[in-house]
Amino acid sequence: MSHLIHRNLRRTPPVAVRAQGITITDSAGRTYLDASGGAAVSSLGHGHPAVLAAMHAQIDRSAYAHTAFFTCEAAEELAARLAADAPGDLDHVYLVSGGSEAMETALKLARQYHLEAGQPQRSVFLARRQSYHGNTLGALAVGGNAWRRHPFAPLLIDVPHVAPCYEYRDRADGQSTDDYTAALLRELEDAIRAAGPDKLIAFVAETVVGATAGAVPPTPGYFRGVRKLCDQYGLLLILDEVMCGMGRSGTLYAFEQEGVLPDLVVLGKGLGAGYQPIGAVLARAPIVRRLRDGSGAFQHGHTYMGHPVAAAAALAVQKVIQKENLLGAVTVRGAALRRMLREAFGQHPHVGDIRGRGLLIGLELVQDRASKAPFDPALRLHALIKDEAMARGLMVYPMGGTIDGRQGDHILLAPPFIATEAELADITSRLADALAAALRAPDI
Ligand code: PLP
């Protein structure tokens, strides 16, 4: 019996003992192609020598010094680099240990920004359905899946949720993409008015919706419209790029492809690429200036914030991305993988949509392509596919069709940026076998 509390309390997963390049090996000697980068984490693959060397060097110098007493070179250098590489005046960086902590940080920073301007009545966040922002209570409250929030509802702040930008499911037959986008923005403006614009702190959204909806990109102009409404009504715009950020979309930040500048950006996963637990919030200059000129302190903090080894790992990851020109690789390899997936599944009767940005790609599974009717969630098709894929030495990230009852099962592919075309072809062919095997299950 394992004493660890695992995700699945009834099943202990294989024991990972070695990881190199795009493969992970378990204690029974089986190897798995990491086609999902874990959960869109391992952007450089495993065992990258430059990142390991940077971590070792930092551990040898100083593994930890509490931020109440010291700062450290690695955290300072990482922050300077992130600020230099980010567009506009996203000049300030708060370092934490993961995506949920980063989201909590952004929520509190946004609240304190309004407080320091004498606007204590601004106490409500606005967010979207079909989104995931983390599992801590604040992040869960802004997250957009009722089934995730439900068990903890009495503990959560009240957050109004508007429709996500989910063209495959929600654009009506005959409706143009522009009209669909305009309708979403009207709904958002109505929600702002209904909540009372002077009560709102910020609008929170994933730029490309990750695991919850399966790599759903925004329609053209959607985020420009959102930015305009936020400016008009005095809300901050918080973009969650925990999954789609740090190069996974083909640009360092996915919002760069939308022509907008958010006020706060939430980061995790690819920032440390799995080498260390690290998350961050990027903040625009006026936000930090207001706190600095006001109370002089951000009322927040964590024991492991600005951790030297985590910062050294993340800094090394950023340097590798630049040195090996991996942003360009993401665009090229993402297009190649989408082409392979379209060849393999473009006519598949149960693959309704293949979508995404860069190397963040989702496949939505449907019972019927024409009606887009999902499979019965009780069949747990996504879990069957994951199991069949693991049996074939392939990791894909599954999500159920239970999400508020209006979406098919889907699987997420987010391979490391270093994956070769041959490896991407291997991933596609193993996935085709796994899908065929899952669809042969007795009840399907
Ligand atoms: N935001 C998004 C978009 C995510 O995908 C995740 C994790 O999956 C989080 C936030 C939470 O990050 P973490 O699991 O590191 O707390």
Overview of the structural elements:
With 444 residues, the chain is an alpha/beta fold. The protein folds into two domains: 16-48 and 325-439, Aspartate Aminotransferase, domain 1, CATH 3.90.1150.10; 51-323, Type I PLP-dependent aspartate aminotransferase-like (Major domain) (Aspartate Aminotransferase, domain 2). It has helices at residues 37-40, 49-61, 73-85, 99-115, 137-142, 146-149, 167-170, 177-195, 222-233, 285-293, 308-323, 326-345, 381-391, 421-439; strands at residues 16-20, 23-26, 31-34, 92-96, 124-128, 161-162, 200-206, 236-240, 264-267, 279-283, 351-357, 360-365, 394-395, 397-399, 410-413. The protein has a seven-stranded mixed β-sheet, with helices on both faces. A hairpin with a 2-residue loop joins strand 11 (351-357) and strand 12 (360-365). The longest helix has 20 residues, at 326-345. The radius of gyration is 21 Å and the shape is globular. The structure holds pyridoxal-5'-phosphate. Pyridoxal-5'-phosphate is lined by residues 39, 98-100, 103, 132-134, 206, 210-211, 240, 242-243, 268.
Secondary structure layout:
Elements: E1 16-20, E2 23-26, E3 31-34, H1 37-40, H2 49-61, H3 73-85, E4 92-96, H4 99-115, E5 124-128, H5 137-142, H6 146-149, E6 161-162, H7 167-170, H8 177-195, E7 200-206, H9 222-233, E8 236-240, E9 264-267, E10 279-283, H10 285-293, H11 308-323, H12 326-345, E11 351-357, E12 360-365, H13 381-391, E13 394-395, E14 397-399, E15 410-413, H14 421-439
Parallel strand pairs: 3-13, 5-6, 5-7, 7-8, 8-9
Antiparallel strand pairs: 1-2, 2-3, 4-10, 9-10, 11-12, 12-15, 14-15
Helix pairs in contact: 2-11, 3-11, 4-10, 8-9, 12-14, 13-14
The protein binds pyridoxal-5'-phosphate (PLP).
